[in-house]
Amino acid sequence: MANFIPAGDGGHSGWRASVQKIGGNLAGMVIPNIGAFIAWGLLTALFIPTGWLPNEQLSEMVGPMIINLLPILIGYTGGRLVHGQRGAVIGAVATVGVIVGTSIPMFLGAMLIGPLAAWVLKKIDGVLDPVTPPGFEMLIGNFSLGITGMLMAILGYLGIGPAVNSISDVLGNGVKVLVDTGFLPLASILIEPAKILFLNNAINFGVLAPIGAVEAEETGKSIMFMLESNPGPGLGILLAFWLAGPKILRGSAPGAIVIHFLGGIHEIYFPYVLLKPIVVLAAIAGGATGVATFAATGVGLVATPSPGSIFAYMAMTPPGNHFGVLLGILLSAAVSFVVAFFILKASKSDDAADLDAAKAQSAANKGK
Known about the structure:
Blueprint: H1 14-30, H2 34-47, H3 62-100, H4 107-128, H5 137-181, H6 188-196, H7 200-219, H8 232-244, H9 247-250, H10 253-262, H11 270-275, H12 280-297, H13 310-315, H14 322-346, H15 348-367
Helix pairs in contact: 1-3, 2-3, 3-4, 3-5, 4-5, 5-6, 5-7, 6-12, 8-10, 8-12, 8-14, 12-14
């Protein structure tokens, strides 16, 4: 996977470089597809039943886009980074197996199976290409891709998809234990990292929403609807990237803020954190602060805000709860901003090294 984003070296310790490289690789699969995420986000914000312009027909595109299109694009991009166009094709084919094998959006599964399938094909091509007779290149190349793609799709269906589903279930059960034992702010330790890996919808709608629905039926509101959907931590992180992040990302941060905070599409800030994985500490701190504030003020929502925008939050807030809800969002944004700002400031020299390494790798790739 030599074409992935390099981690740089310099002052990095081994584990830090590894984490940085993994995060960079994951972000490298998502960032080229941000436009597709925005398209899906706008469709969601506008046309779902709780959107600005509810439309039953147009909202039918929302589900297929998040379940099928976005994961396939991620798998396609991951495969392309590893083995060019052939890697992109087999990455997309293998991702279908992951999608069909589960019932949740398979972003993480696509990030795993896409590059893996392309790597396997690259090794096979390395064996077959030198011994392929002249004139049979297309025949052997197409069949090797087709057969390998079929096998990798089966692996995704039987192995990777269920494995990611199990990870989601484990994280969800962990959150449920913290909820049941009353340690609500600590739930952010599991929720925020899970969100960054695109498991947010599985935890929110699979675990928190059912618990919240029971509470809301009894008391008219529930804090469960706010544990994952709070837009404050993401807002703080994007503000920090705008003011102190790598210069190459600062120009995109304002648009991401609009999509995230006003449009409610939290997925837009996940790649920023993946590029600098230690920033997840800011998300955890901000999320815990928000939950603690919500609990201390005794507020809740009447239903899950979907999408998780500030407008949806206000619409789902029962009378008398607006001050506590806004205070929790504000404090969570402030805490995540401060933590992320200092992390980004402290790691600026590392960013420079990483950027130089990325430029060198890009030049080398062009030469190849």
